[in-house]
Amino acid sequence: MSEVSQLYPLIVESIHDGVFTVDESFRITSFNAAAEKIIGIKREEAIGKNCHEVFRTNICQKKCALRQTIETGKPAGDVRINALNAQMETVPLEISTAVLKDNDGKLLGGVEIFRDLSQEELLRSELSDRHMFEDMVGRSKAMEEIFALLPNIADADIPVLVRGPSGTGKELVASAIHNLSRRSNKPFIRVNCGALPDTLLESELFGYERGAFTGAMTPKPGRFAQADGGTLFLDEIGDISPAFQIKLLRALEEGEIQPLGSTKTIQVNVRLVCATNRNLEKLVDEGVFREDLYYRIRVVPIDIPALKDRKEDIPFLIEHFTRRISAKLGRKAKPFSPKTLRCLYDYDYPGNIRELRNILERAFVLCKNASVQPHSLPLEVRLACAGDHTTADEALPSTASHEKQIPTHHRSYESASKSELRTVLDDVGWNREKAAKRLQISRTTLWRRMKDEHLA
Amino acid sequence: MLLARILLLRCSVKRFETIAIPTWKNEVAPRFGVADEFTIVTIDSNTVGVPRMVQMNESLCWNERLALLREHGVDVVVCSGFNQRFLPLAQSLGLDVKCGVNGTIEWVVEKYQKKELIYFQRGCAQRRLRKRKGGFCAR
User: Cβ separation of B33 and A58 shorter than 8 Å?
Assistant: First the structure.
């Protein structure tokens, strides 16, 4: 028996779950190897400290499981929490706690066993991304309200109007409504009304019969007919002409369509989701958009805010797109330097999430370093950042490397400042030939400038 | 000459700093994101202002917390745990964040004034420094 008990410390050291013990005042008394690995803090650093100073979990202050266990004597199991590791990154954990007593039943403290759930959480978020709200990411209040609203709206089977600036993900909202609705096993058909002239839009939406017009050799079902039983998503609804608005209104009110060149009408059962980046109320006031159609499609309006109005979503969007882009490019995700992140925060994104995604994609392609640096970002993003926190020196040198099409690039680098020179030289590993090429000056001029600035 | 004047102007404008410390049982709270009380103190090299407490609803999200602190004139957040994901958000609001600090509020304020606190920072050099000075906490 004593031989077995001697093995206990070895067993605790060899298991994959983190284990630590505390005394009655919550000072850590032991900390196993797995705990070191999960939290990233050495045993010598952890022992003797208060457990909340080491783990910094979301429940330390109010619902500490270990405290409750020690106070009540009741063990706790499978509690999901999150801690901050040594790099101040969130680590999801599942913990179990128990009381430690000696042979006489005297309280010695408590023990906590924890398991790292990072991989599980990653998989879970991937799955929920795909099946619940597709690519919609957001923790801001506005987005959380939309997420909370979506299941109810989806269930109600009523027309929805999604409003928001271009690039905010209106199509994703429409797609999420369809996926969450009872029509999810039926087709989801998208039509961009702004991309088609009236005549084409009519044949595209309602379909046509053979011989309806020159070249109509075979009959073609329209998008309404294709979406029968499912959802029809009409993007850029604000761009359709008044003449076509009447035809659309009739189709929506009567629930039947008449293909071009046909004498018969077809009954369709379609849920309509429309989207626009235009102010439809204003268009109604101006008489450009029909009031009756407006009230027909705007039964439930959903307003998606611009990205600049929900900047707290940016870290989540960056994480989300980084994962996607690295998978798409087949490359390992590179971390963003703090300066790069600051630039990404400070920029206002007139193109919203679409622009953010493109910026990140570009940064990944251009980045040759271990981490993504500001010079991999477009000039306008760097300049937005330069205005507040960094110097223009940081924004400008890379202009030479990546933004050859931008006229500002034709600035004379004869007058480059010392910090600009240093940044460029650092970037190219102090290779003068490469630095001269990047600055678009001769090697001799670069050498002279380096000597002038005492960089040689 | 111009540079000297600018420096002089900056020195004359910024002589004190207002710091916010998430507080729990008169100690630095373990996590900024869930702290419901903040101690706000204005400090300069000679004096420490009267601390004031700011209550914060637990449900407030990060940008609201940071914006509220900014409204209270806070320049620097001194805390224990601070999710690094939100560091750029704080910086874009003009807040400097010093994390990895533990101890009582009085001790932290005193050490901050004397510039003796050791903060968490990413990178090998800082890791070596932490090791040399005995971990996150300089206590």
Answer: yes
Residue B2 is predicted with a pLDDT of 52
Nearest chain A CA: its distance from B139 CA (Å): 11
User: Which tens digit of pLDDT belongs to each residue from B43-85?
Assistant: 987 788 899 999 988 777 777 788 899 999 999 999 999 987 7
Q: Has the ipTM of the complex gone over 0.90?
A: no
Question: Domains (ranges, CATH) in chain B?
Answer: 14-133 (3.30.420.130)
Quick check: A141 contacting B, CB < 8 Å? yes
| pLDDT < 70 positions in chain A | 1-3, 123-135, 385-418, 440
Among candidate residues A144, A287, A27, the one with its CA nearest the CA of residue B102: A27
> How far is the C-alpha of A439 from the C-alpha of A454, rounded, in Å?
18
A53 to B30: CB separation less than 8 angstroms, yes or no: yes
Size of interface A-B (CB pairs under 8 A): 84
How remote is the C-alpha of A300 from its chain's centroid? 25
Structure pTM?
Answer: 0.52
Q: Are A276 and A238 contacting, i.e. CB atoms less than 8 angstroms apart?
A: yes
Q: Which domains does chain A have, with CATH numbers?
A: 2-116 (3.30.450.20), 125-305 (3.40.50.300), 309-452 (1.10.8.60)
What's the token pair of residue A190?
């998208």
Q: Which residue in the block uniquely carries the two structure tokens 């193109």?
A: A351
CB contact under 8 A, A341 and B87: yes
A292 lies within 8 A of chain B by CB: no
Contacts of B120 in chain A (CB under 8 A): 88
3-state percent helix, strand, coil for chain B, nearest multiple of 5: 40, 20, 40
Q: What beta strand segments (E) does A6-89 contain?
A: 18-22, 28-31, 76-84
Element spanning A413, H or E: none
- CB proximity A87 to B under 8 Å: yes
pLDDT of residue A433: 83
| Confidence (pLDDT) at A407 | 34
Q: Does A451 touch chain B (CB under 8 A)?
A: no
